[in-house]
Amino acid sequence: MGVRAALAVHPDTGRGAAARIAGTVAARLRAGVDRLYLLGTADPDALPGDPDALPGDLDALVVLGGDGAVHHAVQFCAATSTPLGLIPAGTGNDLARGLGVPLDPLAAADAVVTALRERHHRPVDLGFVNGTWFATVLCTGFDAAVNDRAGRLRWPPGPHRYDVAVLAELAAFRARPVTITTDRERLHTDATLVAIGNTPFYGAGMKICPHADPADGLFDVTLVGRATRADLLRLLPGLRHGRHLTHPAVRTLRAREVRIEASGWPLCADGEMLHSRAVTARCVPAALTVLG
């Protein structure tokens, strides 16, 4: 039967970037497969999260899109034998960054072809929360509020939306009581944000959990306690390079399971907003197979 793969294209990703390169990417992928199915939709919720829309017995599902598209693909591939291939074409591309996938989409397409030819697969951990899988970071507090606001902004384009959202949230945000329960300890504290990292990055390259390793079976948790606006302004530039860990308001934990209870705080996972006041996230080792 040969190698059979599906390419899911999310054309609105990256202000139309995915749609513009979809033909070139498909041509490159055909060099490494015997049959390529093309799946395209303007609705990121429709594909590839719907298993009925995909052929059976795929050798790989490849996603051309951003982190939102990848999040939906993860729901299909998690806890199955179907490997996931990543071709980043979005604003953040944080999972690709965290897994060392080339951020240039054509280079990533070539890497997928090589992995298909050589059958080079690797297992990675996933988080599981409220019936949903996540691959990068689950967060609550200031950072989730920033993500929510950035997702609703239409200007400016690209990663600068996060900069505008940060400034807007700084004006009103306050630390709140939070309870964090892990398989090792229980904390009651006032906090500004909590980030549970399976991989290091969120928010288009912010290294919130610098030491998170998606192959160690554990989450890395970054907790920012009570912080003033001045503290946040000093912390935020360091997020790009993981230098925030030295700030006295920052504490880190490692755990297989984390429960967060924080009334009134927004929560998001992989940049997707969650509707819950309390969540328990569990790290599931080797729940996803990726190409490369």
Please provide a written account of the structure.
Strand 15 and strand 16 (272-274) form a beta hairpin. The protein has 7 helices and 17 strands. By secondary structure, the chain is of the alpha+beta class.
Helical content (DSSP H or I, runs of 4+): 25-40%
Number of strands: 17
Domains (count): 2
- Low-confidence blocks of residues: 42-49
Defining key terms:
292 residues; alpha+beta; Rossmann fold; Tumour Suppressor Smad4; eleven-stranded antiparallel sheet; four-stranded parallel sheet; 7 helices; 28% helix; globular
Topology:
Blueprint: E1 4-9, H1 13-30, E2 35-40, E3 60-65, H2 67-77, E4 84-88, H3 94-98, H4 105-118, E5 121-129, E6 132-134, E7 137-141, H5 142-152, H6 160-170, E8 176-182, E9 186-197, E10 201-202, E11 206-207, E12 219-225, H7 229-239, E13 250-255, E14 257-261, E15 267-269, E16 272-274, E17 278-291
Parallel strand pairs: 1-2, 1-3, 3-4
Antiparallel strand pairs: 5-6, 5-17, 7-9, 7-15, 8-9, 8-14, 9-12, 10-11, 12-13, 14-17, 15-16
